[in-house]
Design brief:
Protein name: AMIN domain-containing protein
Strand order of the largest sheet: 12-13-14-36-35-37-33-34
Organism: Sporomusa silvacetica DSM 10669
Strand content: over 45%
Radius of gyration: 28 Å
Number of domains: 3
Structural class: mainly beta
Length: about 475
């Protein structure tokens, strides 16, 4: 799932020069090869060294420390060039060339500071190219609207470059953040750009985890209505009617009260029904439940059973469908049309007051301290393992909201571990912060444009998002 370094024949090899190891990249040689020219160029971020050769050479790359050097050996090649090139650069000192008795050309690049590098070959004409990528820390800040800033932060780290995208939102400036689901229903997928356009959002990031059909994996509440639930108490963002935001672990509890006083636990809301389960389907799910005929379904409007079906019931816009199988179905088997049943759901006293909730996790920061709940919330390696593209949401002491996307699995941004993400959110000033869905789903849209580089190479369709809209649009 995670890509730290790559070795390929005749293509880019990326490593970090300060790492304590030697990486070798080999491309097979052709006889009668000559190094005819060395060309160099410099930018604020990169020093490029180009070796013009007759044919693509065999090459061996070695990184050395104390002093820091990058060594490129090219066996079986003659040289007609100068022996030394001096750079006026804060990172690269000089390039030294030598040829031994066997005809091997050695290029030694002396470095002054930490760096990363890429070595690759190009054809027509044949070239061996070395890019020295400097240690850098560059921020570009743009005011998206009064009260909202977008920052693109390209920074170096001990393991490689990091490209982070940061939205800082002041709710007092007339903006609010809220969840949006794909195509307006739980079941289904939609690109983030499309969600932004449909909701008239100024900006957005991807939200919680989702299944292949778009069903939300986690707690979700929209406009006071619970749209999805989590089996475990996991971290969620809560949005109060007055715009106040909460981040904490939340537990869903639901039951159905029957006319005889019995109660049946609700297993979940708006997901596929399993064996011996009672699932509640609302109009946010889909037009119908899609369930098979091995259970029994009860359509409930205004606490009254209005229809009983064997399967795939239409879901009323002003009610729910209770879909039961196994033991749950047996307990409900005496229900008749006209009977009273009550669906009782709670997230706890405080969280029941929320207007919107979006769950994901794990938690990253709590009360200004790093607080990773990966094991407590039982996240597996698909979320917790290694360095990856990440999306996070944080709350600052001044009330500002931080929405952050970190690119990963790319040469110019290696991504972050959850601990690195927590420390980064703390660095940005978050007093509470949570992880959202990551990997290929990590995406940020600002003013109708994707500003990050999704690791799939293109925009992924997702199940839901967090959108930033003006308070007038939200209401």
């Amino acid at each position: 799932m995670f890509k730290h370094f790559r070795q390929r024949l005749s293509v880019t090899t990326v490593v970090t020069a300060i790492a304590i190891f030697v990486m070798q990249s080999i491309v097979w040689a052709a006889p009668g090869n000559v190094l005819s020219k060395v060309r160099t160029s410099q930018t604020a971020d990169t020093v490029r060294i180009v070796f013009d050769v007759t044919t693509l050479p065999e090459y061996l790359v070695t990184t050395l420390e104390n002093p820091s050097r990058l060594v490129i050996d090219m066996p079986g090649i003659g040289s007609n060039t100068a022996n030394q090139y001096v750079f006026n650069d804060a990172t690269v000192d000089k390039l030294r060339l030598s040829t031994d008795e066997s005809g091997k050309v050695r290029a030694v690049i002396d470095l002054k500071t930490e760096y990363t590098y890429k070595v690759f070959t190009l054809k027509n004409p044949n070239r061996l190219v070395v890019d020295i990528i400097k240690k850098y820390d560059r921020k570009l800040v743009e005011q998206v609207a009064p009260g909202i800033t977008y920052t693109s932060w390209l920074k170096s780290s001990a393991n490689g470059p990091i490209l982070a995208h940061i939205l800082d939102i002041d709710p007092k400036a007339g903006f609010t953040i809220k969840p949006a689901i794909s195509n307006g229903v739980v079941q289904g997928l939609e690109p983030l750009l499309s969600m932004v356009e449909r909701t008239h959002a100024l900006a957005a990031v991807n939200g919680s985890y989702f299944g292949l059909d778009g069903s939300i994996i986690g707690l979700l509440k929209i406009d006071g209505q619970i749209a999805s639930t989590s089996e475990l108490p996991r971290t969620a963002l809560g949005i109060m009617p007055d715009g106040k935001l909460l981040i904490d672990q939340v537990q869903y509890d639901g039951k159905v009260a029957l006319p005889d006083g019995q109660t049946i636990p609700i297993n979940a809301v708006n997901r596929e029904r399993g064996e011996n389960e009672l699932i509640v389907y609302s109009g946010l799910y889909a037009p119908t439940t899609g369930c098979n005929n091995y259970g029994q379904e009860y359509v409930v409007v205004n606490d009254k059973v209005t229809a009983i079906n064997p399967s795939n019931s239409p879901i009323p816009s002003d009610g729910v469908v209770l879909s039961a199988h196994g033991e749950a179905a047996k307990l409900m088997s005496s229900l008749k049309v006209g009977d009273t049943v009550k669906v009782q759901q709670t997230l706890g006293t405080e969280w029941d007051k929320t207007e919107h909730v979006l769950g994901a996790g794990p938690m990253l920061i709590k009360n200004n301290s790093v607080f990773l709940t990966t094991k407590i919330e039982e996240f597996g390696s698909d979320v917790a393992g290694g360095r990856a593209p990440r999306t996070a949401l944080g709350l600052k002491a001044d009330g500002h909201i931080l929405a952050v996307v970190v690119d990963g699995r790319q040469d110019d941004s290696i991504g972050m571990t959850l601990l690195e993400l927590a420390l980064f959110m703390q660095e940005l000033g978050a007093q509470d912060a949570m992880n959202l869905d990551g990997g290929g789903s990590s995406e940020m849209v600002v003013k109708g444009k994707i500003v990050n580089q999704p690791s799939d190479g293109h925009e992924r369709r997702v199940g839901d998002a967090l959108v930033i809209v003006s308070s007038d649009v939200a209401n």
